[in-house]
Specification:
With 423 residues, the chain is of the alpha/beta class. It is built from 15 helices and 19 strands.
Length: 423
């Protein structure tokens, strides 16, 4: 059964009174200007301006647990020491669920209607903690691309908290494959599950080959932290005698993987122009986390150099505790200011179609999901995901944020902060 809404929509820079019709899968089947073809199921007043919701293309939502504990002066190593390496081995499904509910509810309130999650806190529990992330997405109403990440390397000589964390993340590629296959049972109209990898310091060559084969077989993107900091370049040169993208290319040229097209590379701070040429040639995707990279001082992706190679990145926020917030609009403004680019160009770049499940997210178009945001005087007031209301008049319809998230989360983190030793 279709669902029809009438509203004022923004297409590009133009605002037009019109209508949008979606089907049971939440896909746009028709849209147009002027009067709708029948009486709409919902008719929004002209004080609201609707547009496509934002796609947060890289996120670690459980890290919203740490937002109230961090010091903005921390670099990445210090940040990891006091957050993920201190707490992650001690987190259960309740804490993971609360962190993700906080992240997803805040994303929706900031106009984000779909998110790609990179998740590696498996805790040696199979899919128990992974399912907590998916359950939080369903409860919040956000559209989720869940990247079930394989982390199968440890750091020799790591301090105890880091070693314990890496042991909790660790799965062999075979274990990760079985868990990914099982987790696909969670897929729905708003949840897509994909294989994922961590990085060159977190994923072995065996895991990379296995992940690429699975992603190609299933037609899913394969999320991968690529040269977020310089150690990944050092690892590739030491172990493979090649820079990271040249190493990936060697896997393809030697026939060890069927394609590099599934790779969805985040950060790309320490790549050179030869590597950018490989990204363009092999059809890989890129997502930038500009504000996070700047805040924890990992490096910086050269956006003009990517654009010069015809590489148009999507934008992500990484985790809330290492960023200012979870707003993709904030990422656009940061990049536009940093590189003196037109904000309209950066916005159009970040709204390009991205495949997810049966449709795409990004623009308003037939075949895309009916994920829309209505703003009044710039503030998010209405959010629909798949044509169904998630926020109305600025309030979450399925969540009492203070009672179900903020209160219990504060209590959980106070308890952990008082019992978990400092790393």
């Amino acid at each position: 059964m279709s669902h029809l809404i009438a509203a004022t929509f923004r297409f590009g820079t133009a605002a037009t009174r019109g209508w949008l019709e979606s089907d049971d899968d939440g896909l746009i089947v028709a849209l147009g200007s002027g009067e709708p073809p029948r009486r709409p199921d919902a008719d929004f007043d002209d004080g609201l301006l609707f547009e496509a919701g934002d796609f947060n293309a890289h996120s670690h939502p459980e890290q919203s647990l740490y937002t109230d504990l961090v010091d903005r002066r921390w670099d990445l190593a210090t940040w990891c020491r006091h957050t993920i390496y201190r707490f992650s081995p001690h987190l259960g499904p309740d804490e993971i669920g609360l962190g993700c509910l906080r992240a997803f509810s805040r994303m929706l309130a900031q106009g984000v209607t779909s998110v790609a999650v990179s998740y590696y806190l498996h805790g040696r529990r199979g899919n128990e903690l992974d399912r907590a992330v998916i359950a939080a997405a369903r409860k919040s109403g956000i559209r989720l691309l869940f990247g079930r990440m394989n982390y199968d390397r440890t750091s020799p000589g790591a301090y105890p908290a880091k070693a314990a964390s890496q042991a909790a993340y660790f799965e062999s590629p075979q274990e990760a494959r079985r868990a990914y296959e099982e987790l696909k049972d969670e897929e729905s109209a708003t949840v897509t599950v994909a294989p994922s990898l961590h990085s060159l310091h977190g994923s072995s060559k065996e895991a990379i080959v296995e992940g690429l084969r699975l992603a190609w077989r299933d037609g899913r993107p394969l999320q991968f932290h690529l040269s977020e900091d310089s150690q990944d370049v050092d690892i590739a040169l030491k172990e493979q005698g090649l820079r990271p993208l040249a190493f990936f290319d060697s896997l393809l040229r030697s026939g060890q993987v069927p394609s590099l097209e599934p790779l969805f590379l985040s950060d790309c701070c320490w790549i050179d122009d030869d590597e950018r040429a490989i990204i363009a040639k092999r059809g890989m995707k890129v997502v930038l986390d500009g504000r996070m990279n700047d805040r924890v001082r990992t490096g910086e992706a050269d956006l003009p150099a990517l654009l010069a190679r015809g590489i148009l990145p999507w934008l992500g926020t990484d985790g809330e505790a290492s960023n200012d917030d979870l707003s993709v609009t904030g990422e656009r403004r940061h990049l536009a200011r940093r590189w003196q680019l037109d904000e309209g160009f950066v916005e159009a770049m970040s709204r390009r179609p991205f495949p997810m499940g049966k449709g795409t997210v990004g623009p308003l178009a037939v075949g895309a999901f009916a994920d829309v945001v209505g703003r009044r005087k710039g503030l998010v007031e209405e959010v629909l995901v798949g044509g169904r209301p998630v926020l109305s008049r600025g309030r979450h319809l399925s969540l009492d944020v203070e009672r179900e998230i903020e209160g219990p989360l504060k209590e959980a983190m106070e308890r952990l902060d008082g019992t978990v030793p400092r790393a």
